[in-house]
Amino acid sequence: MLIKEYRICMPLTTEECSFLPKFSIYIETKYEDNCGDSENIFHSDKILGDHEVSFLDIAFDEIPERYYRSLEDPRFFSSAKTGRGPLREGWRQHTTPIMCSYKLVSVKFEVWGLQTRVEQFVHKVIRDILLIGHRQAFAWVDEWCDMSLEEVRAFETQMQVATNQKLGSQHP
Predict the structure, then answer these.
(1) If you ran DSSP here, which 8-state letter would residue 104 be given?
(2) Which residues, other chains included, contact 118 with Cβ-Cβ below 8 Å and sequence gap of 6+?
């Protein structure tokens, strides 16, 4: 599945599950200063076959109700620092500046009888995570737009430690 979505992400993410050796998730990211109209941005044979292209609209795509927060809704949010928002119908064609984050998502679960269901479920979950995360990035712009790269890295480290503590993991 090729997902076109708008805002921030890592360039390459690969996850493999050690106790399920036939399960892997591969996510490649590329950024463009456009509204999602680049064709085959990955210049890859991997996506010429059976694939699905999905456009994520951070303002108007439905998210699971349990994750909805009115303060994070781009249709109502307006940034005090940047003047961006609220996003109206057709915002991708009329908003500047705009950045598109293209995602090439590959999921493999090579277990007969479960493969299709598990792969489809994982694609849906990844889509929801990306949609929610990018809605939050847009709505939280006033918190991060003035940060230097060093401040961003320090914030990332702080959030990693806090997350690991919540999950009971050790600090790397």
Answers:
(1) E
(2) 23, 107, 109, 111
Query: Do the Cβ atoms of 82 and 143 come closer than 8 Å?
Result: no
Low-confidence ranges of the chain (pLDDT < 70): 1-21, 45-50, 169-172
User: What are the contacts of 22-25 at 24+ separation with CB within 8 A?
Assistant: 22/108, 22/109, 22/110, 22/111, 23/108, 23/109, 23/110, 23/111, 23/118, 24/106, 24/107, 24/108, 25/105, 25/106, 25/107, 25/108, 25/122, 25/126
- Please state, in angstroms and rounded to a whole number, the distance separating the CA atoms of residues 52 and 56: 13
pTM for this structure? 0.78
* pLDDT at position 47: 59
Task: Count Cα atoms within 13 angstroms, Cβ side, for 168.
Answer: 0
Q: Are 131 and 63 in contact (CB under 8 A)?
A: yes
Within 13 A of 28's CA, how many CA atoms are on the CB side?
11
